[in-house]
Amino acid sequence: MNDLTSTWSGYVQEVERLLAQTLPAEETYPQVLHEAMRYSTLGGGKRLRALLVMGACAAVGGDVQKTGGLAAAVEMIHAYSLIHDDLPCMDDDDFRRGKPSNHVVYGEAMAVLAGDALLTEAFAELARMPEKYGVSPEVTVRIVGELALGAGSQGMVGGQAVDILSAEHTPDEETLRYIHSRKTGALFKAALRGGALLGGASEEELSAITRYGEWFGLAFQITDDILDEVGDAEQLGKPTGRDQDLGKLTYPRLYGLERSRQMAAECVQLCLQALNGFSERAWLLRELAAFILQRSH
Amino acid sequence: MNDLTSTWSGYVQEVERLLAQTLPAEETYPQVLHEAMRYSTLGGGKRLRALLVMGACAAVGGDVQKTGGLAAAVEMIHAYSLIHDDLPCMDDDDFRRGKPSNHVVYGEAMAVLAGDALLTEAFAELARMPEKYGVSPEVTVRIVGELALGAGSQGMVGGQAVDILSAEHTPDEETLRYIHSRKTGALFKAALRGGALLGGASEEELSAITRYGEWFGLAFQITDDILDEVGDAEQLGKPTGRDQDLGKLTYPRLYGLERSRQMAAECVQLCLQALNGFSERAWLLRELAAFILQRSH
Does B112 touch chain A (CB under 8 A)? Predict the structure, then answer.
């Protein structure tokens, strides 16, 4: 019964329900702000980060019923980062997940504020974990720290900052690695570590999950780059690869397509290796790692 | 020895030292981001919110040595809000505390990110309270919740959102009250409640401190409006009152200068009344309330 597709789609619905309940209703004053927050958080997204929370909690034998608050918080942080990344002063993207970006619909000021409020609400939801999900205050505090670290100036925001700063001149490989490991990898890792902590992971399990997260993040980014390149080369008529347009350094540009595919496969192998000591309960994390590779084809 | 001026100036130095230590160093990669974060947080500001934390903790007989983390976090949240408020898409202010705004120095993208990172770092610092300041995890979680509520979509960010939304048409009195109570009042209240919780406040003490905070916020805002108006009327040659320029509704415009001054004095009386049940240990909160009134002259 350990089927990735059905587990995933079931969990997407569950996360959607949780987010819809947790976020202030659209009727709650100030309505436009809450509408903007919900617009960019609900009704879209793979909920990959929420799934990593659940997968890590399950992998260490924890109770996945306790993961709802953290899963919602992680998705809110992800949604906030997309809103701010899309701003005209940042990546200036008018579309996201097939619909107009937040600032296109609500204006720049409201988009900045909706992002700010989502980030803040994420921590509010973490603080509710003891009450709503029976998580101990000790674990709650540790998870607040993990998420703040993953999302902060030496995590996700740091990655976006370096990405912006290096847009003027093509970054070297080390910088590329930094951007990737922080911009997407840091929140993956925080989601995984948070889920493992919720599940009562030992320090040994936690460090294995952390290694998994590092390889997972890299594999994800390489396949992301490949998809951008392949979409470009094979599907003429579609808009040209955005990364290339922006002069961004990508794995295919650095290593070529074939070597990039190999590298992604190697990363996934290292993900699986990191889980060697884990039982069948780590099936979801194993499936998710394998799934990343399928993305590149 | 309970002297407001010397306590205040000593505490300003202490908070400055804490913030300088807590914020990532300018040499820490990515340097520009950390420079931007430090630029808007250090070397300026009255540290009023930090002082409210300390005052509330002292008022309920708590150990003020434990307040450092919360004081730093509150000041980081305040600094982030100023950076985002000053953005061109928001209030479009090029100067702050007598120096160029964050976005003028570092560009809009970095200013958005510096604000995001400061908000995130505030929660990271709260999560360190058990380790650094011996605060219990239970109290830490509660304080995370208080700050997230005060800073979030129905607190500070909500106030800014309504302020932005009502810029097009002069708001009615109810809206004005909402903006004020949220935009500045909510963080005051969170700082006070957080400080009281740190000090081990009873529920009764907590609700008295909350009432104090509500009147304090209103008094502060009224005097702020008065200062804007008075600076305009009495100091010709200086730039015209900014609030009036923006067509913002203010207390003097609504009630006249004299009645506004009366109202501020009444609010301060209600602040002091809220502290009736407190001993001499509430001296700092009493002095701070009285200080607000002096501002208006």
Answer: yes
